[in-house]
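I had to read the description of the data format several times before I understood it. For illustration, here is how one protein appears when written out as sequence plus structure tokens:
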Amino acid sequence: MITSVKNDKIKELRSLKTKKGRRETGLHLIEGERLVLDALDSGMVPDTVLVAEWNTTAGAKLDERGVEYTQVTGEVMKAVCDTDNPQGVCAALKTPDTEPPREYPKGLIVALDRLQDPGNLGTVLRTADAFGAAGVLVGDGSADPFMGKSVRAAMGSSYHIPVWQGELEQELPRLKEQGFGLVCGHLEGAEELPELPESRVLVIGNEANGASPEVAELCTLYRLPMKGRAESLNAAVAAAILIYKLAE
């Protein structure tokens, strides 16, 4: 039982709330019974698992899986987690390798150009997973896909499909060379999708400014037809519709 927030292990886990802490340790923190169990069931091997002393249900489920964990007080659990009302279980996991591959897998790849809201990023990951995307390429300037809010919004999808991080101005030409068609959601695009090969990339731009000019000029631009008076959609909502269309 760990009872002090000054415990060295607890200090390390608290550092995972920061990008610097995640980078230096190679770990990221997840919390909540459903997310922790889903990550374990997806084959993720935990560095550390904490269970609040009052959460006997989570402890029993971890015992069933043969997962070792450390009990902590409610105060310690709250210090480690970044939600207001922690569910009494959290885990530090080794962050997956996010280096872009030399050869991308065939299928639909969703590329994010400076998508800055971690909730939007996680929702896009979840949608990409739901519709069978081959992976998500997170461009420089985007939110960290393995920060707490991103992982919670992804609801386990962070561990179901590949997540890469890289510079889109470099990776998109490589994808084109490998036979991918490039489409960017853009307010100045045509309202009819072009003919595309089976392997395709969908670029989703920044919430406020859309895709950068440098990224947009590498792609065919497509605008979702709007029948109402709204000029645009939330980035995650637009991404969901576009992913659905391009995954067909």
Observations:
- The two ends are 51 Å apart (CA to CA).
- The longest helix spans residues 118-130.
- The chain has ten helices and ten strands.
